[in-house]
Specification:
The protein has helices at 8-22, 41-54, 79-84, 102-116, 138-147, 168-178, 181-230, 239-250, 256-263, 267-287, and strands at 23-27, 32-38, 62-64, 71-77, 118-119, 128-133, 153-157, 160-165. The protein is an alpha+beta fold. It has a four-stranded antiparallel beta sheet with strand order 1-2-4-3. Strands 5-6-8-7 form a four-stranded antiparallel beta sheet.
Length: 288
């Protein structure tokens, strides 16, 4: 998600999204420290850039943990600076997000998504989630998402609160809202593929049902024809019924429509003739 941010307010909003999702603010008597644990060096570099745009003019660097698949950014900061920048609230010393514009909202949610968002492969079912630490001001986040008309559901997972979407259209709109054009296009492409597969599956299922009906009808008709032949009753049938019997036995797996085309009559006419053949068998059996 390559989106350039130059406004300090929006950079700060995205940082808050990262903080609420995977960041830590450690406050002691001696010092105040911020720590981010990130999954990739690209995201780590983005966080450093955002911090500098937001006014953190300190020496920031990425700490790569050997043998581990994550990166850390850690630096000391004065508590008064955190309060002045309104990253945390002076009443409870927690991160509270209070946006001033829609741009701030987009940046905040984008930060949370880049930090811990998951978009599952649509082939396994549509699913997108945002993960927040349980001590986060989740109520505010939920309300912000509702204002933006995103109907997220929530659930607990260990030390986190998970907000998630499972609706294809909502996921597409959410990614587009964040400006995640690459992800959006990928979901769209997978959506099209999944839709095509669904249609193909439905068509195959429908064809299988039709084939079963054709075979069942043929077997029922065949049973009647065998009975009529065995009892030398074909000779008393009309020419049209004899023709129907000949073609039905010659082309056992043709549908009624295909059989009708060969006979030069309507589908309902063929269906009527086959029903008559079955009823004739039943009548003769009853007369025995």
């Amino acid at each position: 998600m390559k989106i350039d941010i130059n406004k300090p307010d929006e950079a700060l909003s995205e940082i808050q999204g990262f903080l609420l999702s995977i960041g830590k603010i450690i406050i002691t008597k001696e010092k105040t420290k911020i720590n981010f644990t990130l999954s990739s060096p690209e995201i780590a570099r983005r966080v450093i850039k955002l911090l500098k745009i937001a006014g953190f003019n300190k020496s920031l660097k990425i700490i790569e943990k050997k043998g581990r698949k994550y990166f850390e950014i850690e630096f000391n900061i004065l508590l008064k600076d955190l309060l002045n920048l309104k990253i945390i609230d002076e009443n409870d010393l927690k991160v509270h997000f209070r946006p001033k514009s829609e741009g701030d909202i987009k940046s905040f949610i984008r930060g949370a998504f880049l930090a811990s968002g998951v978009v599952r492969d649509p082939k396994k079912g549509y699913y997108l989630e945002l993960r927040f630490q349980k001590e986060s001001s989740i109520f505010e986040i939920f309300e912000i998402l509702k204002i933006m008309h995103f109907n997220f559901k929530d659930r607990d997972r260990k030390n986190y609160i998970i907000l998630y979407l499972q609706d294809r259209e909502s996921i597409k709109e959410f990614l587009l809202f964040l400006g995640a054009s690459g992800s959006y296009i990928q979901v769209l492409e997978n959506t099209i593929i999944k839709d095509i597969r669904n249609k193909l599956t439905k068509n195959v299922n429908l064809e299988m049902k039709n084939l079963k009906k054709t075979i069942d009808a043929y077997l029922k008709t065949k049973d009647a024809i065998i009975y009529l032949k065995k009892n030398d009753l074909i000779k008393i049938l009309s020419p049209s019924l004899k023709e129907t019997i000949d073609l039905r036995m010659k082309y056992p797996y043709l549908s009624l429509n295909e059989l009708a085309i060969k006979m030069g009559v309507s589908k309902s006419c063929v269906n009527h003739r086959l029903r008559r053949i079955i009823k004739l068998k039943e009548r003769f059996i009853n007369e025995e």
